[in-house]
Amino acid sequence: MAKDSIDEETLSSEDKREDGTVEAIPTVLGGSNEDGQSSIEVIETTPVRQEVSDAPQTLSEASAESVDVPGTPMENVSAPTSDRRELMKSASLVALGNLGSSVLGMLRQSFIAYTGAAISGPFFASISPAQKFNDFIVNGSVPGALIPTFNDYADNREELRRLVFTLVNLVLIVMAISSVGYFFVAPWFTNTILAPGFHEQERLLTLHFTRIIFFSLLALGPFAVLQAALYAQKEFGWTAFAAAAYHAGIIVGAIFTAVVSDRFFGLRQYGLAFGVILGTVGEIVLIIPGMRNQHMRYMWVLDLKHPALRRILKLYAPVAFSFLFSACIAFLDQFLATQTPCIDIMRQAKSCGDANFSAMNFATLLIQFPGGLVASALSFAVLPSLTTYMREGDIERFKSMLLLGFRLGLLLMIPAAVGLIVLKLPIVALLFQRGKFTAAQGVLTTIALQNYAYQLPFIAIDQLLISAFYARKNTIIPVAVLVISAMGYIAVALPFWQTAGMPALVLGNTVQNILHPIILLLILWKSIGSLHLRGLLPALLKIIGATAVMGLVAWGLQYVLGRFQLFSTSTFIGSVLTVIIAGGVAATIYFALVMFLKVEEVSMLKGALLAKLGKK
C-alpha cells in the first residue's frame, strides 16, 4: 500500500457541496495487503468535493437519462478528447508516483524471503491483526469519511486543525488501550486463528511478533488521520515519502535478522517486528514537514461534541462493516493456510503451513504491483470526472469515461497477467530465491502466483466499477456484492483445502475477485441502462491477439535461453538475464503490435508519459 504525489489540477476542486451525505465503498483486491497501509494502495481516492443527491437514483430516472440521442448510435459514443487527456494525465501521474514505493515494497519482500519460511511465515501471520484492526478503526475511513469531511473545513484552518487533532488524540487513546488489551488475548488468538498449524517454536515466534507489531498502531492510527488531512489540503508529496518509510523500516529489520548474531541480546529473530515499529515511526517523522507546510501543528484537544465526528461515523458505518467482513474472510484464509498439507515437492517436510502461507504472501505482492500501478491509478483518475458527470446528470459522459477506463485497464492488465504466468519461475527466482528461501519454496510461490494472476484483468474492472458506485453515492450494493462474492471463495476453499491444499485457497480468492466485478457490472447495467460494452470488443480482440503473441514469444525465449547455463534460473544472474531479455523483448513486441493495430489508448498512454517526463 503507497501514497501518491499528484498535481492539483487532477482534482475536481470546483465542486460545491450541498447538504447530504457522501458514503465510501470498500475495495476488494486479490490477496492481502501486506504493507500496513490502507486500501489506498490498491485504490487511490481523491479528495474531491462531491454534491450529494437527496435520494438514490431510481431505475426509471436512470432510464430516462440514458435515452438515445437522435442520430448518434449508442455503441459509438466515446469520451471527448479533453476527458481522455485528463484521465491519461491523472492516471500516469498516479502510476509514476506509485512506482517508487512499489519497487521498495518489492525489495522489502525480497529481504523478508531471505530469512526463510521459519521466520517469514510467523512474520506474515503476526502482522495481519494490526493491519486489519487499523483498517477497521481508522485507515478505512480515509477516502470516504475523513477526506470529504476535512474538505468541508478547508477554508477554516483553525477549526480543521481542531478537528484533525481531536481525531488524532482519540485514535491514539483507542490504539493504546487496544494494544495493551491485545497483549493479553494474543496467546489465544495466535494458537486459534493466526498459526494453529505451525510448529510450537514458530507459534511462539508468531506470538512474540504479533505482540510487538500491534504496538505499531500507536503510530499507524494517527498517521492515517494526518494523511487524510494532507490529502484534503492537496499536500501529496510528503505522504509518498512517508509510505516509503514503512518499507524501509522492515528492510532494516530484515537486514538485522540476517546479519546479527543470536548472541546479540537474543534480539536477532525479532528484527522484522521491530522493523515495523521503526517504519511506522518513520512515517510520522516524514509527514511532519507536510503538516508544517499546512500550518497544522499538534495541539492537545479532545472535542468529542464536535459535529463533524457524528458525520464521520455516519459516513464510515457501511465501510466499517465491509472491512469487518473482509477481515473475517482474511483470517479464515490464514487459519486454513497455516494448516494446509504439503504438495509433492514439499513432501519431505513435516509441516508446510509456514511455507504455504509465505508463498501466498510473496505471490500477493507480485499481484499488487501491477494492481497498484494500473488499477489504483485508473480508479483514482476517473473518480472526479465520474462524480462530476453524475452531479450534472450527464449519464452518457459517465458511461464513456467508464468505458475508457475499462479499455486502459485491459490494455495493461491482460498482458501483465500473461507475463506473470509465463515468466513466473525466473521472476520468483530473481526476487526471492536467496538465503534460506529454497527452490522448493520458489515453486510454491509460482503456483500461488499463477492462480492469483488470473484475476488481474478483473481487478482493474472492479476498481473502476467501485469508483462508479462511489460517484453514485451507493454503498449498500457494493457491500452486499462483497458478501455474495465471498461465497465463491468459500465454495472453492472449504471443500478442497485439505486435499488440494494451498492452491485451492488461492484459486478461491481468484474466484471471489472475479465474481465481484461481474456482479457489480450487471447491477450497474440494470441501474443506468446499456453501458455500450460492444464498443470494447474491437480493442479487446486486438489486445488479446497481441497478448497471445507476447506470451508465445516470452515462452519461446525462456525455453531457448534455458538451454544455456548462463541463463539458468537457479542463479541470480541467469534469472536477471532471462527476465530482462524474454520479458523485455515480449513487452516490446506487445506494445509494437497494439500500436500497429491502432489501439488508440496506447498512443494516449505514450503521449501522457512522455509529457510527464518532459520529452513532449
Q: Would you kindly provide a brief summary of this structure?
A:
The protein has helices spanning 59-65, 81-114, 117-139, 141-152, 157-194, 200-214, 217-232, 237-259, 271-293, 307-337, 353-392, 395-422, 424-432, 439-453, 456-471, 476-496, 502-528, 537-561, 572-596, 600-612.
How would you describe this structure to a colleague?
It is built from 20 helices and no strands. It is mainly alpha-helical. It has a domain of 225 residues. The longest helix has 40 residues. Helix 3 packs across helix 7. The N terminus and C terminus are likely disordered. It starts with 58 loop residues before the first helix and ends with a helix.
Largest sheet: none
Question: Shape, please?
Answer: globular
Oligomer: single chain
Mean pLDDT: 77
Helix/strand order: HHHHHHHHHHHHHHHHHHHH
Approximate strand percentage: under 5%
Helix content: over 70%
Total count of helical runs of at least 4 residues = 20
The parts where pLDDT drops under 50 for at least 5 residues are 1-77, 608-616
- Backbone structural class: mainly alpha
Distance between the termini: 31 Å
